[in-house]
Amino acid sequence: MRVVDDGVAEVDKTAYTLQPAGTIQGGTLCALIEAAGASVLGRPLADIDARFLATVKVGPARATASVLDERTARVTVVDAGDADSVTTVALVRA
Prior knowledge:
The chain is of the alpha+beta class and 94 residues long. It has a single domain, classed as Thiol Ester Dehydrase, Chain A (Roll). The chain is built from 1 helix and 6 strands; from the N terminus they run ββαββββ. Strands 1-2-4-5-6-3 form a 6-stranded antiparallel β-sheet, with helices on one face. The longest helix is centred in the middle third of the chain and has 16 residues, at 26-41. The chain is elongated.
């Protein structure tokens, strides 16, 4: 996993991040959401409320966080290799 910009983190589709179905694990996506959210809020997170809408089939998965207030951000995860299709949305709190 890597933070590529303030509020933006990516993880590649590798053997380590996959579940048996061949898509990126939900736990890996939550770690990605945490990295993006914490980087934009500037402190560790206390809560993640994630909604999984689709799977990351191609990868990499890219999470982008936008600040809603001083303790809250919205994070959107897309499958960057599949035309940035939205796979997960989350609300995070510090």
